[in-house]
Specification:
Layout lengths: L9 E5 L5 E4 L1 H7 L3 H4 L26 E8 L5 E13 L2 E11 L5 H8 L4 E5 L5 E4 L1 H7 L3 H4 L4 H4 L16 H11 L3 E7 L8 E11 L5 E10 L1 H19 L6 H12 L6 E6 L1 H4 L16 E10 L13 E4 L4 H8 L3 E4 L28 E2 L10 E9 L2 E10 L8 H38 L10 E8 L9 E8 L5 E8 L4 H19 L4 H18 L15 E8 L4 E7 L5 E3 L5 E2 L18 E5 L5 E5 L11 H11 L7 H12 L8 E8 L7 E6 L5 H15 L6 H18 L4 E7 L2 E8 L19 H8 L2 E7 L2 E9 L10
Parallel strand pairs: 14-15
Antiparallel strand pairs: 1-2, 1-5, 3-4, 4-5, 6-7, 6-10, 8-9, 9-10, 11-12, 11-17, 12-13, 14-16, 16-17, 18-27, 19-20, 20-21, 21-22, 22-25, 23-24, 23-26, 26-27, 28-29, 29-30, 30-32, 31-32
Helix pairs in contact: 8-9, 8-12, 9-12, 12-13, 13-14, 15-16, 17-18, 18-19
């Protein structure tokens, strides 16, 4: 094709007679006539339309004037031009005119060249999408020349453009959009992503399409322009994936879930396959091994925590026990040992042996880190086109390795893809390490808490008990809920439940301190309200001891709640006091709920406020439900509704408390809970009257032999002859001390429970204490003798004085049900 040239403005000189006296080279290019052909001839001979007024002989008169006229080309065709006459004057007057001639009605050739050389792809098609014209850039994109395309339909020549690479976007094919513009006359803009012929890289084109109308407004053609914005498009896609990763990775504090979130974020938008392999120590929440522990020629054993694949390749997620061994010298093993990422590509080298990278700066080989990419033809055997292996590192610790692979996607990995893979892995690594650390702390807190909670229930006859303790869900920290069952003197039992504010190790440690304190105070046999008062003081002192100078450091016990209840199977009386804790539910044998007439006091650690206790007499077989607020927690219902729901779940007709515990837990606790929950169920028993013997003792030393006789006869009546000797001695000592040092009335009580209990009560508040008598002392040996002969002894204060008690173990095979 001959090169096109543009014709500048032509100049013709006309004398006063209208004859041509000068003819420029530009005039020859425009009209084809040479100077020899035209000089001396009238200019009017070259026109094919009436001459414009003002020229000599109709052309030269008048001032400067411009007119559009048609001049005759040498080949006979008319040429529409714009002529402008410029009068020429000299010393002798008018010399004629200089006439400038410019082409009219057609753009300059330089404009054609501008469109032809435009770096954007330009094209014009008829309404049936037949090619009318394309520029050179468009021809390079579609790998066709203009001569090959003219008159052919777009879809017949370039069917691959209509194959969408992203079916999940539901985009219209490109030719459908062209047809739509031709049909509606409405312009459109779209993004087209396709793989050009002969390329291993998908390109993204921004395209604008508009209708071309004739003078009557009819759509006679469709035009478009487009430019390659692959670098910008893929950079935006990578940013979108990173943005999604910011909200999609690390939503839970679970190692496995976080690994699966990484796989879900990467497939299918970035790669076709992902494998996340972690060290076993990371899976267990422990510290990962040191990289220095691995030799260069050592195989690396990991666990497959998560994997993801597209389409038919997607299988069920593996369990955390799937082992993956990376052979010594493999890419994954090298990544673990060196801590550096590796990119493997399966493509064949291009002509000359060089690797054909995709378009755009992002794929420039100069942007690859040293040693990348590695051409590995063996990937094709695995059905892969490329693979990126990235070590999973966080805070200087190596957690595992991640592999990103492509098999279906047409584009090869670029240097920016490596950066994206490392960014995704870095985000996941921090989240996995956080989950590992949380798992470690949670396991430690659970272990500590379970070691501090009762491992079994003590042997006592006052109540039948069952319990459940459930820590918060996997996404929640361990709380400070606790409970206890404490046998007390006189066959009584204390039921305790509490809740420490906060979560984590400090809550578990605080729970342990409170439980120990309650057990210590329970040994003193304080009434419930006094016990909570001492416990409140203890919490205040602990807070002061643990607070650094000049800084306030809250402790787990501050703001904790506690419920302390004592049940006496002899009197069937329940005494309850609460420090900010929910009151227990009491269900009578007939199923009616008995209210607890006490107002909860303030939480522990407030100080300066009193605690109240209340007593109520319970029928035999009453059901007590003590619980923490985690059992009632709900977003859908308020506390009163949840308490009513708990009351309905406490079916008194269920004989097994273990089964009833399971029923209550199933009804009250959702699968995903955020707080600990403790439940303690107790069914009350009553000690038979013939297992209790009372005798009023007069304040006379002569009553001591009678007291011994009463005790021995009662023990013999119970069939416990083996215990008669010890019982006679301890009764003698305790009654003698009460008569000598106490105040009347004095009472002796024997109780046959799981042990043989002897109690002596008087009205004095002075408590005895154990001491070692000297050689010539007349007293001081009584309590020492009691302590040596019995299983345990103690003193408890009452509203009317005090009670000194001791307990003997029953002979093996004897209990409260015998006799």
């Amino acid at each position: 094709m001959a090169a096109k040239r543009d014709v500048p403005t032509a100049v013709v000189v006309v004398d006063p007679d209208g004859l041509v006296s000068g003819w420029s080279e530009e005039a020859r290019l425009l009209l084809g006539w040479t100077a020899k052909d035209t000089v001396g001839r009238p200019l009017a001979d070259l026109t094919v339309s009436p001459p414009p007024p003002g020229f000599p002989d109709g052309y030269g008169a008048g001032s400067d004037a411009s007119r559009v006229v048609a001049l005759r080309h040498r080949d006979g065709s008319p040429v529409e031009v714009l002529v402008t006459a410029h009068p020429l004057t000299g010393s002798e007057g008018t010399l004629g005119h200089a006439v400038t001639v410019q082409r009219w009605g057609r753009r300059p050739v330089i404009a054609d060249l501008a469109f032809e050389q435009c770096p954007f792809a330009l094209g014009v098609y008829d309404p049936d999408l037949r090619f009318l014209w394309i520029n050179a850039s468009s021809g390079r994109v579609i790998a066709h020349s203009e001569e090959q395309l003219l008159g052919k339909r777009y879809r017949e020549v370039l069917p691959e453009v209509d194959r969408t690479l992203f079916p999940e976007r539901d985009d219209k094919p490109y030719t459908d959009k062209l047809s739509e513009v031709a049909r509606t006359g409405e312009p459109a803009r779209l993004m087209t992503v396709f793989q050009p012929r002969g390329s291993s890289y998908a390109t993204a084109w921004a395209t604008s399409i508009w209708p071309v109308r004739d003078a009557e407004g009819r759509v006679r053609a469709v035009a478009n322009w487009g430019f390659d914005m692959s670098a910008e498009y893929w950079a935006r896609q990578r940013l979108l994936i990173l943005n999604e990763a910011g909200g999609g990775i690390g939503r839970t504090l679970d190692v496995i879930d976080t690994a699966r979130e990484l796989a879900a974020t990467s497939v299918p938008r970035f790669v076709d396959h992902v494998g996340v392999d972690l060290f076993d120590e990371v899976m267990r929440g422990e510290e990962p091994p040191s990289v220095s522990a691995f030799a260069p020629d050592e195989a690396i054993g990991l666990s497959r925590a998560a994997q993801g694949s597209v389409g038919d390749d997607a299988g069920p997620p593996p369990g955390p026990t799937v082992r993956v061994t990376h052979a010594a010298g493999s890419v994954a093993a090298r990544c673990v040992i060196t801590g550096r990422s590796t990119v493997e590509l399966a493509a064949e080298p291009g002509e000359g042996g060089e690797w054909a990278f995709g378009p755009g700066l992002a794929a420039d080989p100069a942007h690859w880190p040293p040693g990348n990419p590695v051409i590995d033809e063996s990937l094709a055997v695995e059905g892969l086109t490329g693979r990126i292996t990235v070590p999973l590192r966080a805070r200087g610790a190596l957690l595992g390795v991640v592999t990103f692979s492509r098999s279906r996607r047409p584009e090869a990995f670029t240097a920016d893809d490596l950066i994206l893979a490392e960014e995704l892995t870095a985000k996941a690594a921090v989240a996995i390490d956080n989950a590992r650390r949380y798992s470690h702390e949670r396991t430690t807190a659970l272990t500590l808490q379970r070691s501090l909670l009762p491992q079994g229930l003590p042997n006592q006859e006052a109540v039948e008990v069952a319990f459940r303790y459930l820590p918060g869900g996997a996404g929640a920290e361990v709380g400070g809920d606790w409970f206890d069952v404490i046998p007390l003197s006189g066959a009584r039992v204390a039921l305790v439940v509490g809740d420490v504010v906060g979560h984590g190790l400090h809550a578990s440690a605080g729970m342990g301190r409170l439980r120990t304190a309650v057990r210590t105070l329970a040994d003193v046999d304080l009434p419930p309200d006094e016990l909570l008062t001492h416990l409140d003081d203890l919490v205040l002192h602990l807070g002061g001891d643990l607070r650094p100078d000049g800084h306030f450091q809250p402790t787990g016990e501050s703001g904790a709640t506690c419920l302390y209840a004592v049940y006496d199977p002899v009197s069937r009386r329940l005494t309850v006091a609460s420090a900010g804790h929910p009151l227990p539910l009491v269900i009578a044998p007939d199923g009616t709920a008995a209210p607890v007439p006490v107002h909860p006091g303030p939480p522990l650690g407030i100080g300066g406020l009193p605690f109240e206790s209340a007593e109520l007499e319970l029928p035999e077989g009453s059901l007590l439900a003590l619980y923490t607020d985690g059992l009632l927690e709900s977003r859908e219902h308020d506390v009163d509704e949840r308490v009513a729901q708990l009351r309905r779940a406490l079916d008194h007709s269920v004989t097994s408390l273990e089964a009833l515990c399971d029923t209550v837990i199933d009804v009250m606790l959702p699968e995903r809970r955020t707080d600990d929950a403790a439940l303690l169920l107790a069914r009350t028993h009553v000690l038979a009257r013939h297992h209790v013997a009372d005798w009023q003792v007069s304040p006379d030393p002569g009553q001591v032999p009678l007291a011994r006789k009463f005790a021995v006869e009662q023990v013999d009546a119970w069939g416990l002859e083996e215990a008669a000797f010890v019982t006679e001695l301890v009764v003698s000592e305790l009654v003698t001390n009460a008569i000598r040092y106490g105040e009347p009335p004095i009472r002796l009580r024997l109780i046959r429970d799981s042990s043989l209990i002897c109690e002596v009560s008087d009205s004095s508040s002075t408590a005895p204490h154990l001491r070692r008598a000297r050689a010539f002392d007349e007293g001081g040996r009584g309590l020492l003798l009691v302590a040596q002969l019995t299983q345990g002894w103690g003193a408890r204060h009452t509203a009317d004085g005090k009670t000194i008690w001791c307990a003997q173990a029953l002979p093996q095979g004897r209990d409260a049900t015998d006799g």
